[in-house]
Amino acid sequence: MKEIHTFPPRYGPEWGSGGVFGLKYYKDTLYFTLAFEAEAHFVQDDEHKIYRFEQVGYLPTSGGDTYNAVDVVDDSIFFGGWVHAPAIYAGRVGRGGLIHFYNKYSHVHEYVISEERVKLLWKESIRHESEWAGEISNIIYDPVNDRLLLSRSDGHKNLGVYALPRRGGAAEKISENPSLKGALLGDYACFDVIKDWRRGVEAVQCHDLISGKWELFDIDYSKMSVDGSPAFFTMSGPAISAYGRYMHFVRGGVLVGNPLNYEGLSFLRLFDFGLSGYGPLRTSAVPFAGGILVAFNAFTHGVQYPRNNDEMEAAKAMNTIVGPSVLLYITPPIARIVGAFGARITSIESAGGKVFLGTSTTANYGALDAGPVDAGWKEVVGLDLAGALNSAPPVVFRVDGSRILDMAWGGIPLYGYRNPRIIVSTSRENELILREYDFSLSPSKAEEERIKLTKGRNIIELGAYKGILSFQLIEEDPSLVAKIVLE
Asked: Which Pfam families does the protein's record reference (predicted)?
């Protein structure tokens, strides 16, 4: 198997760049979908097969998957998402462009490994110019009922959690609550609840696979937060279960615990940079050597040509590059940075001691920032991570006071760094609250320390801290500039 595949910008009408999604190595076959080019790739030894979603509709297609909707059962790889078949690029609108959605379908496919054959199991479209049916953003195999559970939140109609027979047929809605991601937790399947993507994860819903009943658990970030401060714009990232707990990563951190028992859920702040798009978005979390690997991305969403004040503010938040994308390895009570990369890691898979990363250099844009070409360079890279687990890469994060205001921010894992420090430049005296906590499965409140800031440049050595560190200003200071330097 080749350990690197490179894909330059090619025809794929959509918004900005997609990426490499759904990476799955199973029974000597490496699967991934290249979006927005709408190509499903199957690599086995020296064979490399490409499926263009022609069973959904006519070529040229675009899209494919942008959330990592994939699972494996027996001799099959099940993959889902959305696809334009055919794609309709409607031309320029200002400096951007317009996509029509008449031919946008949500889909689920099966790749039968022994037969080397792709089968379309299900597709759906609402045939509208500017709206679409809920995309398939997550697939969970239900081993109790031998069916596929589908998350649907990104769209305008037909949202919720659906069940699809493994051999195909009609998709049945089993929850009205829109969901983007979820994971098995024992003999339950737990999912987020997304009613507004900007607000993010507002609740967790769990489905008893035996009785068929649902339970809903509302989330109050202020009460659940280990550092005692709320979180904002908690857009949904990947979910995974390990150690008997459910972990749901969101912009700003992670929800961890068991909502079904006495523990409930806690919120641990991770890589939260205030009014910023930095987060574990459109990526995956996977098991690796008994721990969990997850990416926090620097540039997942963006606005290329803002047309009004709201879009200008969104552009300032999402287009600002706070720091590199990082790969986080979690082995409670420790979380540590084991890799620093470019714009975003769109998919992760481990196989044979290696970790495969799908990457893209460009964000997924929105609004009218459409074009006929996928703007990003994309790669599938195989890395030997064993050595990286014993060292921490140098990383710098830069944060402006106008982006953090009076919010808590940070959540920086310091384990493995010998000389971490924060450099704060401020126009007046202030005070910085430091809160330290671990990635504990039974979290306790953070330990707190306050440090006086003088006008000008302040260098605060952080070498005495070995856990996760978040920060908060006593008084809001838009002129402040902070650099977190990890060496």
From this structure: DUF2139
